[in-house]
């Protein structure tokens, strides 16, 4: 005896579950997402380090420029051969530069994976006696700066360099 089939249902059983193709597509998507997630920190580490160091320097340049204006004193910046940069101040009553050691202007060593190059547009800086120590860039109390270009270059890929530059009147800009 045959029973009547309600409308909308077929006689064949409706299969429940996923097909093999659907499962393979899901596994493929999960694999691709895991691959991107696991590889992105490895490939982005160098560029991220360069960007962080450039952003740090840009903020410090902005702060020291404001500080020079507010304190009515000249401040300086230099980099030694080991890649450590230093901050300087020229007090009003003195003709001799004094190294700054307080936060955030304490000496700082760039990561070993980065090289730093400083090019200044001026030769001799005003009222500086020739000496081994002292700034290469001066932030003047009238809000001007020695024009410069500072290159932050990773050892691994020189194409990922970042340049911080100013013409002496405008703010320090980051150029990629």
Description:
A hairpin with a 4-residue loop joins strand 1 and strand 2 (84-90). This protein has one domain: minor pseudopilin epsh fold. It is elongated and about 115 Å long. Mean pLDDT is 82; it is low at 123-131. The protein has one helix at residues 20-71, and strands spanning 74-79, 84-90, 98-99, 108-109, 114-120, 137-139, 148-154, 162-166, 173-175. The protein starts with 19 loop residues before the first helix and ends with a strand. The strands form 2 sheets. Strands 1, 2, 3, 4 and 6 form a 5-stranded antiparallel β-sheet that branches. Strands 5-7-8-9 form a 4-stranded antiparallel β-sheet, with helices on one face. With 176 residues, it is α+β, with helices and mostly antiparallel strands.
Strands, helices and their partners?
Elements: H1 20-71, E1 74-79, E2 84-90, E3 98-99, E4 108-109, E5 114-120, E6 137-139, E7 148-154, E8 162-166, E9 173-175
Antiparallel strand pairs: 1-2, 1-6, 2-3, 2-4, 5-7, 7-8, 8-9
Give a brief outline of the structure.
The protein is an alpha+beta fold and 176 residues long. The chain has one domain: minor pseudopilin epsh domain (minor pseudopilin epsh fold), CATH 3.55.40.10. The chain is built from one helix and nine strands.
Strand content: 15-25%
Strand count, sense and barrel status of the largest sheet are: 5 strands, antiparallel
CATH top-level class: Alpha Beta
What is the fold named in CATH at topology level?
minor pseudopilin epsh fold
CATH architecture: 3-Layer(bab) Sandwich
Number of DSSP helical runs: 1
Alpha-beta content class: alpha+beta
How much is the radius of gyration in Å?
A: 30 Å
Helix % is 25-40%
Low-pLDDT segments, ≥5 res: 123-131
The total tally of domains equals: 1
Question: Count the strands?
Answer: 9
How far apart lie the N and C ends? 81 Å
Corresponding CATH superfamily: minor pseudopilin epsh domain
Q: What sequence of helices (H) and strands (E) makes up the elements?
A: HEEEEEEEEE
């Amino acid at each position: 005896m045959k029973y009547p089939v309600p409308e909308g249902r077929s006689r064949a059983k409706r299969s429940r579950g996923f097909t093999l193709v659907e499962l393979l597509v899901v596994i493929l998507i999960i694999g691709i997402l895991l691959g991107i997630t696991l590889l992105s920190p490895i490939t982005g580490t160098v560029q991220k380090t360069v960007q962080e160091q450039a952003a740090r320097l840009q903020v410090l340049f902005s702060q020291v420029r404001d500080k020079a204006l507010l304190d009515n004193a000249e401040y300086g910046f230099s980099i030694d051969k080991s890649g450590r940069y230093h901050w300087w101040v020229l007090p009003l009553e003195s003709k001799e530069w004094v190294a700054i050691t307080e936060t955030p202007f304490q000496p700082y060593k760039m990561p070993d994976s980065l090289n730093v190059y400083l090019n200044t547009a001026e030769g001799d800086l005003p009222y500086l006696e020739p000496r081994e120590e002292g700034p290469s860039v001066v932030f003047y109390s009238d809000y001007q700066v020695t024009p410069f270009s500072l290159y932050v270059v990773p050892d691994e890929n020189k194409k990922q360099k970042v340049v911080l530059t100013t013409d002496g009147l405008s703010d320090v800009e980051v150029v990629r």
